Amino acid sequence: xxxxxxxxxxxxxxxxxxxxxxxxxxxxxxxxxxxxxxxxxxxxxxxxxxxxxxxxxxxxxxxxxxxxxxxxxxxxxxxxxxxxxxxxxxxxxxxxxxxxxxxxxxxxxxxxxxxxxxxxxxxxxxxxxxx
Length: 131
Known about the structure:
Elements: H1 3-8, E1 21-26, E2 55-56, E3 61-65, E4 68-72, E5 77-78, E6 82-91, E7 97-110, E8 114-115, E9 128-130
Antiparallel strand pairs: 1-2, 1-6, 3-4, 4-9, 5-8, 6-7
């Protein structure tokens, strides 16, 4: 999670159940990290079939167990042949404010569709967890 998201949660900036949350993909030239505060087009993937800004994340689920709140989404599927090194999850409704940065660890390439497989939705493995 980005630092700004952690600060904005108790300020009620984000409502993940009603806001539009998107994931954008980025090349290895991107400098996304915990200090990223807002969506940017700098070094965003450019490919036939990929739309700048990425895609809307669907089926937002917010649950709690073991004193941990956790949030998950369906695995995003981009219908494009592309290469990406990472992603930014951000809140369109809140002016593009960042939520989380993903680093794939290396360039990942697809020839038809690009699927980002998110961790299982549980208190110990969900992508977004608040303990």
